Amino acid sequence: MESSQPHELAHYSAGRWLLSQVYIVGWPAIGVVKAGYTSAGRTRFGPYLVRGGELLYLQSFEGIEALNVESQVQEEMRSRWPLAFASKADAAAHLGRNGAGYSECFQVPVAQWHEVIEIAKGAES
């Protein structure tokens, strides 16, 4: 097993270090926000950034806590804002990967993005 842990919350699995994170990316040009989970870091959300997205929030968590936070954030977003895309095909230009993850994207006016961040911060506790 690798001895140098890259982050205090990282865990070693399947021969590599993993770090559970929740990210929120927003595309200001279209007023869309996506909240998601990753254990692959920038490899997961980086492609959104080259497609016009901005990283609004990134937080690391121990174990599966990130999945709980992601679920809470998405549930709250779903109760406040409409889905941004009707299908994977509609989302593909912004998300890549044939639009995978389109159901985690919401139409949120840029002026309300701070509310999404506050939802995520509230879900941390």
Protein described:
Helix content is 34%, strand content 26%. The strands form 2 sheets. It has a 4-stranded antiparallel β-sheet with strand order 5-3-4-6, with helices on both faces. A two-stranded antiparallel ribbon has the order 1-2. The relative contact order is 0.20. It starts with 10 loop residues before the first strand and ends with a helix. The radius of gyration is 15 Å and the shape is globular. With 125 residues, the protein is of the alpha+beta class. It has helices at 42-49, 65-80, 88-95, 113-123, and strands at residues 11-13, 16-18, 20-27, 32-38, 54-61, 105-107.
Outline of this structure?
By secondary structure, the protein is an alpha+beta fold. It is about 35% helix and about 25% strand. The model has no long low-confidence stretch (mean pLDDT about 90).
What coarse outline follows from CA principal-axis ratios? Answer: globular
* Tally of contiguous helical segments: 4
Unreliable stretches covering 5 or more consecutive residues: none
Rg (CA only): 15 Å
- Main β-sheet description: 4 strands, antiparallel
Q: Pairing-aware structural class of the strands and helices?
A: alpha+beta
* Average pLDDT metric: 88
User: Helical residue percent?
Assistant: 25-40%
What letter string, H or E per element, gives the SSE order? EEEEHEHHEH
Strand content: 25-35%
Distance between the termini: 32 Å
In order across it, which strands form the biggest sheet?
A: 5-3-4-6
Strand runs, count = 6
